[in-house]
Amino acid sequence: MQIVDLRSDTMTQPTEVMREAMARAEVGDDVFDEDPTIHRLQDMAAEKLGKEAALFLASGTMGNLVSLLTHCGRGDEILLGDRSHIFLNEVGGLSALGGIHPHTVANQDDGTLALEALENAIRHSDLHYPPTRLICLENTQNYCFGSPLTPQYMDSVAELARKYGLMVHLDGARIFNASTALSIDVRELTRQADSVMFSLSKGLSAPVGSVLCATRDWVAKARKWRKMLGGGMRQAGHLAAAGIVALETGVDRLAEDHQNARTLAQGLKRLPGIEIEPEKNPTNILFFKLDHPQVTPREFLEQMDAQGVKLLLMEGGVFRAVLNRMVTREHTASALEIAKSILTR
Ligand SMILES: Cc1ncc(COP(=O)(O)O)c(C=O)c1O
């Protein structure tokens, strides 16, 4: 049976070119900072994102955690979206391991945090308050329909941060989806942030890894936190080799995923019971609901799955479908046909 896996872009598998590059990679001990392939990846990433230096890490979660630990001390407070991945899906690592206090601000559907709400959330000095240290943004904002934050919005947040002496961390797990959707250079979206994490293992198709980019001094500190968390990975150049291919070949094709997402959203909208606003989902992530007289959301999920189309059913009966390199235009059309056959029976 043909499998069309729409649960996440983390399902992407390494390309043939990646597999070859991994096998051939020249490696060394990265804890000794002697892995030439990791150096190449880090230099490439820093250059692409317009930062001085970069650090290769095992995952996006580790990249975000290392960033927060590098920016904040115990008892410091960070401001972040109530629909952000760091707040919802990273096991509360910032509190458990860093003693960092998360202060959420409501995410709007376009992924932004209203500037006024953000400013109001910044603590003034008072004996009772934890000091605000950092603002975290996410671009694209996964749980806000995969929305890209614009450079203008990023500029406004950076200006606010500077006014109050705060740092800005960007969870840019899908930053290249954002720059693709906005048709701009990715640096337009990273220049405002003091630290940026991006994922190699999602739409870019590498099997493992994320990269953290910032100033040279900051990255030196982050490197120590990575070691403390057990993230010193020795001959990980074999993994970084795939990351290099991901950066060389993965970015330009993200537009295809966005196009397939648009096709899927428009097709789903025509089906009975499906509630989706295609224009609200501008990148590779779609969210929709089902209110159908004969088919419950759970039944839809199971019947799609039985025919090889895998979706995520989240809290509140919300479905998520994430387009990715493993899902072609033909797969997209076939997923739509299967959905239609279930909902129009
Ligand atoms: C926005 C965002 N940030 C961070 C992460 C964490 O990445 P990882 O799964 O590599 O830990 C994810 C994962 O889906 C994500 O969607």
Report on the structure:
The chain has 345 residues and is of the alpha/beta class. It has 2 domains: 13-250, Type I PLP-dependent aspartate aminotransferase-like (Major domain) (Aspartate Aminotransferase, domain 2), CATH 3.40.640; 253-343, Aspartate Aminotransferase, domain 1 (Alpha-Beta Complex), CATH 3.90.1150.10. 41% of the residues lie in helices and 17% in strands. The protein is built from 13 helices and 13 strands. A 7-stranded mixed sheet has the order 2-8-7-6-5-3-4, sandwiched between helices. A 4-stranded antiparallel sheet has the order 9-10-13-12. The longest helix has 16 residues, at 254-269. The two termini are 21 Å apart. The chain binds pyridoxal-5'-phosphate. Pyridoxal-5'-phosphate (PLP) is lined by residues 10, 59-61, 64, 85, 138, 142, 171, 173, 199, 201, 210. Residues 10, 59-61, 64, 85, 138, 142, 171, 173, 199, 201, 210 line the site of pyridoxal-5'-phosphate.
Short description, anyone?
This protein is α/β, with parallel strands linked by helices and 345 residues long.
Topology (SSEs and partners):
Elements: E1 4-5, H1 16-24, H2 36-49, E2 53-57, H3 60-71, E3 77-81, H4 85-89, H5 93-98, E4 101-105, H6 115-121, E5 132-138, H7 151-163, E6 167-171, H8 175-182, E7 195-199, E8 210-214, H9 216-228, H10 237-250, H11 254-269, E9 274-275, E10 285-290, H12 297-306, E11 309-310, E12 312-314, E13 318-322, H13 329-343
Parallel strand pairs: 1-11, 3-4, 3-5, 5-6, 6-7
Antiparallel strand pairs: 2-8, 7-8, 9-10, 10-13, 12-13
Helix pairs in contact: 1-10, 2-10, 3-9, 11-13
The chain binds pyridoxal-5'-phosphate (PLP).
